[in-house]
Design brief:
homodimer, 548 residues, alpha/beta, Rossmann fold, GMP Synthetase, Chain A, domain 3, eight-stranded mixed sheet, seven-stranded mixed sheet, 16 helices, globular
Chain lengths: 548, 548
């Protein structure tokens, strides 16, 4: 057989870093200081990345060694994203919002050799280090070395001092595209957190998809406000996609409250932004209290949890288009993006597309599987567990002795997402629930996600989650945990009345509880595990309980 | 060392075809019939592709066998793009504008087993087949089998009859991403045409880049008028990129004259279009005579030959933005795209970016090499031979006995483009000439391309090419072969006067000849080889020759 004449052209992050260093002198990484931005070009980030690589080599870091970060979104984190995988080591981003038990478990499980830590969170890390005897070096960034007290055996360095005087060039020519590059752990709503190891190839292809019209359309004409943390699924791939597209990134550092976020929008006039729904909920509340023009935003990508349709309408009102997207740690994360098809001019029909999770981009294959293990049709009606496959989707979970493919998580090479979904004939996917969050009442299924969205469309409701709770008559019934706008909005009957025309009568929940905040996971999703626990422990004041 | 947990997710055209079949029921391939469109969905194209694969299997086509096409841009050609590589065979697109000698050479060199031919060009192919004894089957498309008379030993089929009754499914699961997929020959301005074999991987990555913001931004909201022929460098990758993005393609079939092109624009209202400069020259002339609103075009991508700055301005006047791009058969072809960087608001500065060939997208590495073999700086001034490398750039030329890497074409793994270029510090590349088209006069270099552009900026000039010709005093001097607007525009002195303020005095050509058309290659570039030959043969009436 004849052979292709094409060059191989390995898909490596080192080549991406070199590309960005040379191609886009005008693009910037801009970190918010509380008052303004400190800017660096990709050339400076690349220089810093090489200095990091040289310094880590001196500390004894070798190919495949894990180098962790415990950091906010900022210039130095971007330089670590550039330098660590490019030298052949594995960047392990630790989630700042983990419980101490989870953090210690993950540092040990990943076998982190070096940890870079922002000074503001160094005391938190300091506590974990008592339980992580294999860590050898800690490097304090954006602050003095004495921001942390480390146990004996761990050498503490100051970042600027560590890289000062190191050469800004490093020979990163020998990486294979299938080598490990970055490692993340799932937030672990059930059981221990699970590790996923992205390869150079997977990240490269994922970055390309972010810059395509199927993805986030990030371009050299864009400034992206990257609110989604770099410690969570690579900030949805933005640090690498920006290097590829030559886009400017605004990094919020630790300033993730609505007020500084709106201040940095005013100062930096981003054209794009990306964050989970809860962030936008807060921004929206402040915008209503203190209006500000945010129409410099062409699109706002929202994912990580389902976007309530009411939020999309709300932002339409600000003149800003929310693009709904879906993904998970296991999918790098871009899995779907909701852009209506060409020629849909009717606003209501268009909206119906926008509230779905969206279409799968090229290279993400998808199917839905029924209870009997059979594939279900894409008819917009049949719902089953969503399974996906492709080059930026994990095919195993990380274990130090060798990666593990567990049948409860994988099905013949496909990732079982745990999401229950429908897919329309034109490929738009809607998550109707987490597999374990469907509520079975009197033999009929209720989608807790759909019910949450409808409850939240009541202007009196700020946010609401729904879980199934035991019921003597119906086996299980929905229970609503809601945050309302004011104390006047705690009348259960008026909430039930609101639902009357919107859901079948048998789906209207009897049990309600009003709180000041719904518990959330480290990545901002409703933490139903904790809600269930609190409910079982009798922690909530339940109104309307027919069994009380 | 730890391993990545990612799935491999092979980059194959078969997976792309299956993806497009399922994901975009609204997208269409629309072939112009002279009066309207005949439409097919990607699902129908996919079905047809599978039928072709089944039919070819019965004809004995095996993996790696070459299946050629001698066809216009139309639905059936798209189905062949889908089906042939997906079954593991190699699609070989034959250029309709080759000379008979070149066509016979190429068919034999590629060892084509089957040729699909459009009925309208079947008589032309019929003549070549006397010299191609290894061809076994010819399939006539869009017409009756008797459109061609084939020599003995070749079985002639009719396309619809061949695929009728074949199953619309085919098992294409076993392709490796590095397998050969599509084959093209260069137009061969010097020596024999050279073959390039694209792989599934190279085409997949190239399609991704077409849909990125660095490429053509082709999306599911777009209709692309694909004027650039499918028989030349895969129509710049559009057939595959459209499958990926879910974009609609308008295929002009054989109707490539300005009048039908404007008719199909009016009927199909494309948002994007792609063609070489000479096509737009014709469209522009007709538009001036008979105005038509073409502002439905968001962008027009022009490449294949340098775009005269005057043309960009002309189209700005129509309210349509020309995007200048550069590439070659050896680069799949996308090599650069000229989009000004963010923040350039001054119109004149922006224009200076738009007339360059543009920036290299991610995965295309570039360097310029001086006469001494040393790399030159990106300072916008130093010019040297442009060399490129990357996964959709050829690393060899096809030879039946094994691909060949010739030092005159490759430099340590990099492709020598033969173009002489400068690159600015912000990465914008400008081709100043073909290496062999620089003119050396009295020890100084003249860029024939720059001179051509300036001469063509004279409103009296329709098109002009410049070659170096022997001169007793200066060794070599520029000679201009031009097409002018009217007979009144043939005064050499007025042309020289026009140049006075625009080029150094010593660069102003003495020798001019006015003709009705400048000779062009099969792909629409000025054919300087033929111009040189004609000049040497004394075929031109040369005005102003100081030696005459």
């Amino acid at each position: 057989m004849i052979q292709s004449t094409m060059q191989h052209g390995a898909l490596t992050l080192s080549s991406l870093v070199e590309y960005s260093r040379r191609s886009f002198p005008e693009a910037r990484i801009r970190t918010w200081t509380g008052e303004g931005f400190r800017d660096q070009s990709f050339a400076e980030i690349g220089d810093q990345g090489a200095q990091i690589a040289n310094a880590l080599t001196k500390l004894g870091v070798e190919r495949g060694d894990r180098v962790a970060t415990f950091m906010w979104n900022n210039n130095e984190h971007q330089a670590l994203y550039a330098g660590v995988p490019s030298m052949g080591a594995v960047l392990h981003t630790l989630n700042l919002r983990l419980s101490p038990e989870q953090a210690v478990f993950i540092i040990n499980h990943a076998d982190d050799k070096v940890i870079f830590v922002d000074a503001t969170v160094a005391p938190m890390l300091g506590k974990y280090l008592e339980g992580t005897p294999k860590v050898q070096h800690v490097v304090v960034v954006n602050g003095p070395a004495d921001a942390i007290t480390a146990p004996e055996g761990i050498t503490v360095h100051q970042y600027d001092e560590l890289i000062a005087g190191e050469s800004a060039s490093f020979d990163w020519s020998t990486i294979d595209e299938n080598d490990p590059a970055v490692m993340c752990y799932t937030s672990g709503t059930t059981g221990d957190p699970k590790g996923v190891v992205y390869s150079h190839r997977s990240i490269y292809l994922h970055s390309m998809i972010i810059t395509t019209t199927m993805g986030m359309r990030l371009s050299s004409q864009d400034t992206m406000l990257a609110i989604v943390p770099m410690f969570h699924v690579m900030s949805w791939g933005l640090p690498y996609a920006a290097m590829m597209a030559g886009a400017t990134l605004i990094m919020p550092d630790r300033f993730l409250q609505p007020e500084p976020l709106l201040a940095m929008m005013e100062a930096g006039r981003p054209t794009l932004a990306a964050a989970v729904p809860t962030i936008w909920q807060g921004v929206s509340a402040l915008l209503d209290a203190k209006p500000q023009d945010i129409t410099h935003l062409r699109e706002v990508v929202v994912g990580g949890a389902a976007v309530p349709p009411a939020m999309i309408k709300k932002f339409d009102g600000y003149g800003v288009r929310i693009i709904h997207a879906w993904g998970m740690t296991e999918t790098s994360p871009l899995g779907t993006v909701a852009r209506p098809p060409m020629g849909v001019e009717d606003e209501e029909k268009e909206f119906a597309y926008r509230v779905t999770q969206g279409r799968f981009p090229s290279l993400v294959a998808a199917r839905i599987i029924g209870d009997d293990g059979q594939e279900l049709p894409w008819d917009g009606d049949a719902s089953g567990e969503l399974e996906v496959s492709g080059p930026w989707i994990t095919g195993a979970y990380f274990e130090p002795e060798g990666n593990v493919v567990d049948d409860s998580k994988f099905d013949d090479g496909w990732l079982r997402t745990g999401d229950v979904a429908t897919i329309t004939p034109d490929g738009f996917m809607t998550i109707v629930d987490r597999a374990k969050d469907m509520i079975k009442t009197g033999g009929e299924w209720i989608s807790s996600v759909e019910l949450e969205n409808i409850i939240a469309s009541n202007p009196a409701v700020v946010e609401a989650t729904v879980i199934g709770v035991p019921d003597k008559k119906w086996d299980e019934r929905p229970f609503v945990l809601a945050v309302v706008r004011s104390e006047d909005d705690t009348d259960v009957e008026s909430h039930k009345k609101f639902l009357e025309d919107l859901v079948p009568r048998w789906q209207i929940p009897e049990r309600w509880s009003f709180v000041t905040e719904v518990p959330k996971t480290s990545v901002g999703k409703f933490d139903k595990k904790r809600v269930r626990q609190h409910y079982a422990d009798g922690d909530y004041t339940v109104l309307g309980d027919p069994e009380a």
